[in-house]
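Problem 12. The chain below contains 271 residues. Write out its predicted structure in token notation.
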Amino acid sequence: MHASQSIMVERYEAKYVIPRYLVPKIREFIEPFCIPDPNCSGDPPEYVITTMQLDDPWLRLHKAKENEAIARFKLRARIYGTDGVSPVFTEVKRKIMNVILKTRARVPREKWCRELLLNPRRKLDFGFRSDKEQVAFLEFVRLIRQIGAQPTTLIRYTRESYVSVVDEYARVTMDRNLLYQATNSWDCWGDGNIWRRMDSVESQNKNYPFSGIILELKSMTDVPTWQIELVEKFDLVRAGNCKYSTAIWTEALFSGEPELPSSYAMDMLSQ
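Solution.
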């Protein structure tokens, strides 16, 4: 699954938190321009994503997002589905201004372990599909070792996904059932442990009277006209929604650590 996705993608992303009643209307609007993502199944077309977020002991990757650093990156590993057979996809996702640059590599599930990433004597060649993919994986490992990254959070959600048939690259995704759990394990993908919701009104913290769906419009830097018209038709307002930071902030409500960002804390107190 997802083997056809590019090893490197440079793109533009816009996120919106939308009410559930808009979902059927958006499906109807994009029908002339998109087809279901071939990696999906069912009606609507969707799949489950589980992401292992990696950060240093001071959570500086999370804080770079919190402080809206102009240039920042995320380290994560991702599996698809819940049947236990998906390979692990490693990702370095960089954001420079409004442009996203993502590199990824595929690791066989049976090869994925802490020693693979942290043992300098471990062989890091297990049949990559290209030299670029191998370079992407080596960069992932280099950054982990350089900043001392370790697993901090697992995030799981269901993604409804569509791909454009009229553009070189454009996608529409809608994420629901957002869950997270704190972790320090390189091998556990969350099964058997307690998941906590992070798509509640409180977690989304947008002062909305509803728990929303996360809509993402993705394209090359030249945004398709139909995506612009979609935003205008439904009067959408961009809303930053980093799943990793939302998980960190939501966990802070339970544990008190790390501290909530000041704006988040004030909003919560005012509700």
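Discussion. The mean pLDDT is 87. Students who got a different answer should revisit the alignment rule from Section 12.3.
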